[in-house]
Amino acid sequence: MKNKICVIFTGGTIGSCAKGETVGLKQEVKSALIERFKAHFGDSIVFDELHPLNILSENVQPADLEKMAECVRGVDVEKYDGIIMTHGTDTLCFTANLFSQIFCDLKIPLVFVSSLYPLDDERSRGFENFAGAVTFIQSVDFGGVFVSFENYGENCKIHLASRLVSATQISGEYESILKTHFGEIVEGRFVYNSAEGNPSLSDLKAERKHCKAQKLCMDMVTIQAHSLLNFDFYRFNERKPKAIMVQLYHSGTVCTEGEEANFKKFLAYCKTLGIPVVIAPIDSRARIYESALGLPELCTAAYDISFEMATVKVLLALGSDLSLESVLRDNYFFEKLH
Fold first, then answer.
1. Alpha-carbon 213 to chain mean position
2. How far is the C-alpha of 129 from the C-alpha of 308, rounded, in Å?
3. Rounded Cα distance, 58 and 300, in Å
4. CB–CB of 124/75 below 8 Å?
5. Do the bridges between strand 277-282 and strand 300-303 make them parallel or antiparallel, or are there none, so unpaired?
6. How many CB atoms lie within 10 A of CB 38?
7. CB atoms within 10 A of CB 303
């Protein structure tokens, strides 16, 4: 029986408590999360704890992410059946996608858990997410990076970290891209989701190549397409970013007519400054709208991955001095949908 798990605590809401009308971090010698798990399930599992930092995830800096990564690198995978990392819900999606790349070839499962609300709030699902992560680790014989998260009224879902998309506004619930999660916890056991597009269990067991891109660069501007977006306000006379990410509409489109809102005019401006522009998400199998004709030839297109993953890949490519096109093209941990 698998019975030894390394738990890395990083703060976030799951490590916080309510203080009147605010939520703040708490300092504790013993983890309330682990103590609650033992009270419910007993002492059959040995948990070793690591506390590399204690931070609200919205305040995370590159050095904090590197500290988390170094903590994972320092875990002896021969001693443990899996790793659980607690994390704040706000930036869970980014860190999960990032770690799915830099730890794509991890030999044991690394599972992120968060809680949305402090553990002492009846709306919190932190304990359920933690218990789901433990069940998943006990159930599988492959490695990689995953997320355990229970939305209201649903079973706890297990997501491929490389396919997790941003939380829903206000409610803070999480889904995988195309709403195709990897599996779920049903009555205390892990059930794989055999839906089309998911990697098979044998795919997960196969050896994966190491991701060369390991360092981040923050010198990037992100723009989200919306109605009446005025691209003329994006001018880089004093300081140029190393790249620009533009999140397209779900159909892979953006305004390409008029003056201020014309994306093609903005692309021409960026070209004069030598700034690469990356667009995502784009489904390579979908029909192309007339408004989007020619766009991939004018910039760099990130095909068949989420915008969140495209963002991670571009930041890694810039930080590791690698080609944007090659990093976006590589498929390290099943982030590619086709």
1. 16
2. 22
3. 29
4. no
5. parallel
6. 14
7. 19
